[in-house]
Amino acid sequence: MIDQFLIPLIKILIVLNATLVGVSYMTLLERKVIAWVQSRLGPMRVGPQGVLQPIADAVKLMLKEDITPTKADRWVFTAAPVISMVPALIVYAVIPFGPTVHLFGRDVSLYITDVNVGLLYIVSVASVGVYGIILAGYASNSKFPLLASLRASAQLISYEIAVTMTLVSVILVAGSLSMVSIVNAQYNSRVWFGFVQPVAFVIFFIGSLAETNRAPFDLPEAEQELTGGFHTEYSGMRFALFFLAEYANMIVVSSVATTLFFGGWLRPFPNVSALHFLGVVPSWMWFLIKSFVFLYIFIWVRATLPRYRYDQLMRLGWKVLIPLAIANLVVTGIVKVMLF
Amino acid sequence: MFDTSELVINMGPQHPSTHGVLRVILRLDGEKVVDAEVVIGYLHRGIEKLSENRNWTQIVLLTDRMDYVAAATSNVGYCETVEKLLNVEVPRRAQYVRTILMELQRIASHCLWVGTHAMDIGAMTVFLYAFRERELILDLFEEFCGARLTYNSMRIGGLPQDIPPGWDKKVLAFCDIMDGKIDEYETLLTHNRIWLERTKGIGVISGPEAIGLGLCGPALRGSGVARDVRKDEPYSAYAEMDFDVPVGVKGDTYDRYLVRMEEFRQSLRIIRQATQGIPEGPIVGKVPRLIKPAAGETYHAIESPKGELGYFIVSDGKSTNPYRFRVRPPSFCNLQGLPRLVRGHLVADVVALIGSIDIVLGEVDR
Amino acid sequence: MLQAIAFYTIAAFILGFAVLVVTTKDTVHSVLFLVLDFLFVAALYVMLNAQFLAVIQILVYAGGIVVLYLFVVMLVNLKRPPEAHSDPHRMTKFGFGLAAAVLIELGAILVSGYMKAPAVAATATEASMPVSGNTEQVGWLLYTSYLIPFEIASMLLLVAMIGAIVLAKREL
User: What's this model's pTM, rounded to 2 decimal places?
Assistant: First the structure.
């Protein structure tokens, strides 16, 4: 009974809360890092060094008037932020934060579940997340959000293809769809797949920037062109949900990148016993550190690069990334059949 | 085969990247701009009419409010026009200080431009970098005349006060700082692939066509026309300065960008020469206590950061205020080119092009 | 018992949403109900222990195809009034005809399925597969017993793709 219901429930609670706190602190991190890049200080007023800023933001957003435009499609308008938030959260069900550890006298796995189609589950749930953006644009019944949501759907669908292709080549190398087995495969092959599949990693990284609507692919919310994009008409907590969903997706993408390409919870060189002292840092810490590096790069890229134009973005996706991903897949397949 | 309908969207007057209260009505086919109509007048304060009811010295502070990011240039332009009308000789010291102020102002204005232009295209860091340097210039202005935005920094016939002691050293120190900072902006933008893709081939306009549309300033020089009032009809101390007029080749957004980036450097060159060569002497010429020019009219143009800023002033010789006061604002004339430039491009390019022609709505509407 | 309750609940939802899909006036709403319908079908697959199929159902139908539906529905202006026609119920007859055809087909499948049910079950389970696991088995079957249908399906998709490109690109 305890093993079947209580422990998963506790794990779900921990992961959900950690995610939500993490997501709200991502906003602070982003503001701080960008401020440092731009020789500013960033938020400083709420708490020491502004550490309580996310709480102040949350309070502000909750107290704000929640406006529904008169001509909006009321139901869809309300549902859209939820639709974009939920997939971003349920993905965490299959992300392995660590291996099975011995805790309080019983074996506890540091992941909520390990389904044998884990990676596909992530991809499919992420693909449902598109609805939030499309519906937000449609339901606002306003031209700028509509344009933005059309951009978003086109962008997400195109980049999903490239990203999924790279995932397939990783699956070929790992021989499994389960996230835990993929990490174990990296342990057994003595190398992180990021080095086995560098092309796939680069495509995955660019594609995931596009899929999470981050700069330089943040066209759906291009403030300068579309006055905020699909969430132009949103305010208060509903706006915050979109905002949080974006950051939650960033964390998901970083976690997936860590798991697939950089050994998940494994410490660097897990098979070299000379580096055994690295085991002092618990496995889940390694996972978080690696994911954090990705998040940092996401923010760094945003502070540095200008934005692509819509047609250039589509050209990059369809004419460069997708063919490259397919070629990479074919080469991986050939090498795998020839050598193993 | 498929019937498509045009989408009309209204960009502005409240829009984050129309640089103020510009309103552009775009007719779109998908995301492609079929036609654009510029609607102006949201910031109209009637400066020309107001000026006709103020005496000659009071008008200087109204000119501040036109191009509010380059107020000193507007001040000088007006004062020189009146001096021409009065036939007043301005002392060389005043001429040199005016030149320094105008070139500092050009850098400040271009800082604002490069920041907002890059911001429109999505590179937000350049914006804060550029504002950091603009701040240094504003400090210099504050030291000179006490104000940071609307300076009222000129008097007819010369300067309101001499430069503070040590000010010229600070200007030179600023020049040294700025040299490196321009390279910094260029590192972030000039060879950036995304920046190149976003600006090259966007809003191409040939030299003759640009002249036909009445474009001026960097927007014209980007198309390869070496028209610069500072060179062609020198005023202040520009005749004694050694500088080049950068021109573009293709006339696209990227060339206009390069022209302005080079103007940063040329401005620094002028500032260095002028600061090192400030002559001693009086700062105000022989101006009558009551300014009352003889009946007549005059037109005088200067090169503001945005382009050719001209004043046409008519005096009736009887009253103490101008009979007619007319400004040829460069932003207004450049804005005429916008519909021509954006046609056939995408929505994202519209903001790039608004940034590229560098307008200030205060000056467009007056 | 628990399984039966879950099955009938999910089935009820599937049918309910299916009815909503065809009865809702607003096209976008009806597409949304279609998505919900697909999600519940995926839940049904999970109950049958076919996780791979469930995930693919969500990925392909809910995440891919219906997004494109939504795209089309949003782009095409459906708010104009339907044109008047001499026989407003012409579609109704056609619809009933189609429904009858589908019903007969389903009945036939059901009947034939009952007749040789044990045989089918035997071939499915006893097919000697060198792989274990849901995903692997699906892959194995697709590339061995059902290779030709699989290839035909992929040809069909290729043709559809080329057709779409030809339609969309007016001048080649």
Answer: 0.81
